[in-house]
Amino acid sequence: MKFLNKIIHELLIQNTDLSVFNIVLPGKRPIVFIRQILEENNYSGFLPNFYTIEELIDRIADQQAIQGISLWLFAFDVYKSLNLIPNDDFADFLKWFPTLQKDWDDILKFSENDQAVLQYMFDEERIKDWAQNLGEEEDVPRRKFLNFWKNMNVFLPVLKKRLQEKNWATSGMIHETAKARIDHFAKSTTEQFVFCGFNAFTPVEEKLVRSLLQWNKAQCFFQADHYYFDDERQEAGKFLRNHKTWKEFNGSRAFEWIEDDFNQAKNIKVYEVSGNVTQTKILPEIFKEINNSTYSNTAVVLLDENLLPASLDVMYGVENLNITMGFPLKNLSFSNAVKQLFYLQKQLEKNKSSYYYKDVFPILEELPKSIEDENVINDFKAKIEERNIVYISKKLLAELLGGLSYFNLLQKAESVDKYLDMLIEFCQRIKWLEIDDIQYENVSHFENAFRIIKNQLTPYDFEIKMETLEILINQHINAESIDFQGEPLKGLQIMGLLETRLLNFENVIMLSVNEGKLPLGNSQNTYIPFDIRKYFDLHTFLENDSIYAYHFYRLIQDAKNVHLLYNALSSGVNTGEKSRFITQIEMESSHEIEHLIIENSSEPISSQPIEISKTDIVLERLEQWKKKVSASHLTSYLYNPIDFYLSKILNTSETDEIEEELSVKNYGNLVHYSLQEIYEVLKGKILKESDLQKSIKEIDQYIDIAIEKLKHQPEFYEKGMNFIHKAIAKKVIQNILTHDLDLVKKGNKLEIIAIERRFENVDFYLDENNTDKISFFGFIDRIDRLNGTLRIIDYKTAKIKNLTVKIDEDNVDEYFHNSDRKQALQLCIYHYIIQNLPEFWGFPIETGIWSFAEAGKGVISLQFEKGDISDAMKSVRSLILEILNPDINFIENVKTYSN
Question: CA 469 to CA 458: how far, in whole Å?
């Protein structure tokens, strides 16, 4: 810590008792390092007093600061009392006041007269509109702008007066009050002040420093470097060059200090990285280049605070870590759950009859839960997914989730006040659960926020809606962060850029050095245009760029090893452009810079297909499988042997997921179940025209029965694509019934023999000695008899494919080793089974598929152009023997796609 060491050394020369000094710093972070330096110098006296410059200004102004929720509520009470037009409610007020308040604070800090700026804004709007007829409508945009600044010229002076009456002040008002008291303070104080490491001052801060210098009650130590100080083009030295011109720096008081550190030898590397989080993956490689295994004198600077979790993930091997930056509260799971709770409440105000499942599931997943709650939630999700309930009735929710400890939070709130009480009580309760420290802090911050809002709302009588409460919470939480504690004096330091002020590190690793992150660019959230800000000497994005430039150059000027990483991918607000500061160093500095390109490969981790060997356990499972083999098992194997292995050997199954739109599988089930119900009534009789005509009229009733069988809600099919799917299903069923009706009308004799005919224990021998066998089982969708011919019918959602069989001696072994022939394979197995069931002996057999995609065509039969059913079963035998062969592994069938 070269700069801090230099300051302490200078002060000890001046006085061995440092308690006579008040050290004023840009932030509190350097205090712990100053104490360490004093300990290393064997200092045994009293410590100096430490202030931030904001604390010193506050001390001079002697006013009670007001900010955040307290200020918004008080300001709205004042606004409402003025009866201004538009008469915004609190929710609308919060949409513009926080931004206006920041602008107002800027005006109070940087301009001579806030009312002059407000009047200027109003006059500018009037000039723009002088020749326009704005009419009488208040919603015309130009009139709204004009009225806004007209109202602010009334509202803000009254707000200031009311705040002053209570001795309350915003940060801008504190600066304004301090400005009037600085001369007296500088003259009367007997204290000595030391201002360390400052760059940019507000006018009030500058007046304070210069007044104390004039009375010889202060000294300033700046940390500047000739590289950017001497060059007028370098924005990093903009403010320091101005400070050098103060009359207080003369022959008797030098401007201290300007070093020449930046041009000293440095190892600078710039990394172009494909991906934001990918930057963190490079950190372990960079750490290998650092000789000090404890990583002392090393800082990782995150310009994007969202990279903190990913950075910590790759630093698991670092023993000593100190995190100086805060992590935004808004990015944590409990914060997301609270947002979802408020969103749910808003939805309940719109829809009072049911809950949308996607509004409920995220809350249940992200809120901390006890074991009892977890059991209730798991049962609830299983039942909702099983029944595919998209919109959950209030009655059903209470029935399934009534045992949840925080069920009251999911119900429509009676009032905002009562809901806040429930939230506070909930936060108190879950802090007793076994949750990690970060989540505990997260919950505690929210509990504190809920209490603050409840307490602040008490004095006011205006109505607070749930939407308003949500805005209040979001405004409060967006500005909050969780602070981490660690060992600040050793090990690796993880920091934000502002936390590095006054500190120096030998190794600096900076992530997200992108344009828009460093500097932030023209991203000010303000109502005051750029030219007016310039006119009244308010800070613009240009001044902010200069401030960030100084922090950047100051951090690396003393470093020996500098690693600058930036995300080269364009996504969202990130342009993929490296910071202009990197370009400046490349173009203007004397340093040799090493450039590295790190690509995030999109290739799969393994390009080899999955291969499972047939171990003794697998072979044992296959022996069990032989007792119950279905045609679908074989088609599954043809499609992908790994799917067969997972489902038939490991007995795994896909988890149920809620379908907002009917899937192809369930569309097929809807038609299938409907047909099953229709033909079950007609089973065992020769069909008449009247039977089929009656069935056609009653299709809707049968579809409703099928929907119950699917465990779907009737409402699921009332609108959108599902309404269309149901209508298509009805048309398909109608086409099938109509086709049968036409057959009967033409004099054909059609009899329904069986629907969903179950079969099992149909043996199929795998060797000539009839010692090794498998047993077929399964269901045949429909068996009927048309003019004396037994028809075995399988329903398919897909179109019909390859039902003409061509088997000869050359291809008999591998004929059905082709997934394109799986429909024919299935029909051949059904043919074999029916042949072997005594009840069907003696009948001519025909097997076929009835496709829902082409329902009007009727049954398309299996045809043998070459070979017969016995040849087909030889090929089936060959396929089964391959599955059972211990020397043939299960190998993934990788699907390839081409244009």
Answer: 14
706 with 580, same domain: the answer is no
619-666 residue pLDDT tens: 999 999 999 999 999 999 998 899 899 988 888 876 667 777 888 888
Whole-angstrom CA distances from 327 to 555, 596, 765 are 22, 29, 68
Closest to 781 in 3D by CA, of 757, 797, 799, 751: 757
Tally of CA atoms within 13 A in the half-sphere of 816 that contains its CB: 29
Which pLDDT does position 209 carry in this prediction?
A: 94
Question: Nearest 10 degrees: CA dihedral of 853, 855, 859, 861?
Answer: -20
Tokens of 223: 């940390």
Is the domain of 422 the same as that of 563?
A: no
Q: Do 469 and 566 lie in a common domain?
A: no
**Residue of 291, 331, 330, 294 lying closest to 310 (CA atoms):** 331
Sorted by sequence, the CB contacts under 8 Å of residue 280 that are 6+ apart come out as 307, 310, 311, 313, 314, 511
Asked whether residue 477 falls in the same domain as residue 499, the answer is no
**How many domains does the chain fold into?**
3
Closest CA to 513 of 445, 583, 560: 583
Residue 507 CA: distances (Å) to CA of 268, 295, 298, 332, 564: 10, 9, 5, 30, 11
Count of C-beta atoms within a 10 Å radius of residue 631 = 22
- 376: nearest Cα among 405, 355, 341, 354: 405
- The domain boundary residue, chosen from 483, 516, 539: 483
Burial state string for 190-225 with b = 16 or more CB within 10 A and e = fewer than 16: eebbbbbbbbbbbebbbbbbbbbbeeebbbbbbbbb
Task: Tell me the CA distances in angstroms from 676 to 236, 354, 706, 755, 795, one per residue in order.
Answer: 80, 32, 9, 6, 11
Query: What is the torsion angle, in degrees rounded to the nearest 10, for the CA atoms of residue 699, residue 701, residue 704 and residue 708?
Result: -120
Adjacent-strand bridge partners of 563: 269, 509
Give the mean pLDDT of 353-379.
87
Instruction: Choose among 676, 680, 662: nearest CA to 728.
Output: 662
Beta partners for residue 595, in sequence order? 270
- Phi and psi, residue 136, nearest 5°: -100, -10
For residue 877, which of 813, 809, 802, 810 has the smallest C-alpha distance? 813
Burial profile 869-892: b = 16 or more Cβ within 10 angstroms, e = fewer: bebbbebbbbbbeebbeeeeebee
pTM: 0.71
Residues 6+ apart with CB under 8 A from 690: none
**Per residue in 811-822, pLDDT tens?**
888 888 888 899
> Would you say residue 108 lies in a domain?
no
In whole angstroms, what is the distance from residue 527 CA to residue 529 CA? 6
Domain boundaries, position 782: 616-891
Residue 770: Cβ within 10 Å count: 9
**Which of 725, 739, 744, 746 shows the shortest CA–CA distance to 848?**
739
CB 670 within 8 A of CB 728: no
Q: List, as one string, the DSSP characters of 708-745.
A: HHTT--GGGGSSHHHHHHHHHHHHHHHHHHHHHHHHHH
Peptide bond into 488 cis (omega under 30): no
Phi-psi region of 620 (alpha: psi -120 to 50; beta: other; left: phi over 0): alpha
Q: Do 655 and 745 lie in a common domain?
A: yes
Q: Is the pLDDT of residue 478 over 80?
A: no
Q: Is 801 helix (H, G, I), strand (E, B) or coil?
A: coil
Quick: pLDDT tens for 382-398. Answer: 888 887 788 888 888 88
* SS3 state of residue 259: strand
Average pLDDT taken over every residue of the chain: 87
Query: Do 694 and 758 fall within a single domain?
Result: yes
The token pair that represents 327 in the structure block: 């992590």
The dihedral through the CA atoms of 729, 730, 731, 733 has a sign that is positive
Same domain, 696 and 775: yes
